[in-house]
Amino acid sequence: LKARHETRTGENPDFVFTRNRLALAQELSHETTVSLNEEKRRAQQESIEKRQLALENALRQAKGEEPLAKLAQEDETPPHADDKKGKPEDDAYLAESGKILLDWLGLNEAVAKNNLPRE
Question: Does the global pTM surpass 0.85?
Fold first, then answer.
């Protein structure tokens, strides 16, 4: 199941985006020091925002959407806030869950056929 899942999601823009965002979050969580210099902190924050924007625009480009000039602020609507209103088949996670279930059913059927008593 895992191999099939990894094969399907390896190039899926939604899953690539999620993996990249997770990698960035993990990288940032491993930082153990914070500069007290305001200029350095602002530069660091700007660098993080540029990386987040690049990730978002890579996702949008892969989906054929227009890139963003800047990320939405916390009080603004996030870029993919309207995704929840879309069609279920457009939800990559829901679609992949269904495919995993179908894989599991197919594997169980194959195992059951191999374990049938022979007459």
Answer: no
**H/E element, 39:** helix 38-62
- Give the CA distances from residue 99 to residues 15, 57, 59, 94, in Å, rounded to whole numbers and listed in that order: 14, 27, 22, 9
Rounded distance between C-alpha atoms, residue 6 and residue 19, angstroms: 12
Question: Tens digits of per-residue pLDDT, 23-56?
Answer: 999 999 999 999 999 999 999 999 999 999 999 9
Residues 6+ apart with CB under 8 A from 56: 17, 68, 71, 79
31 domain-assigned: yes
3-state secondary structure of 70: coil
88-105 burial, b if ≥16 CB within 10 A, otherwise e?
eeeebeeebeeeeeebee
Task: Give the amino acid at 12.
Answer: N
Residue 37, domain member (yes or no):
yes
Domain that holds residue 76: 2-85
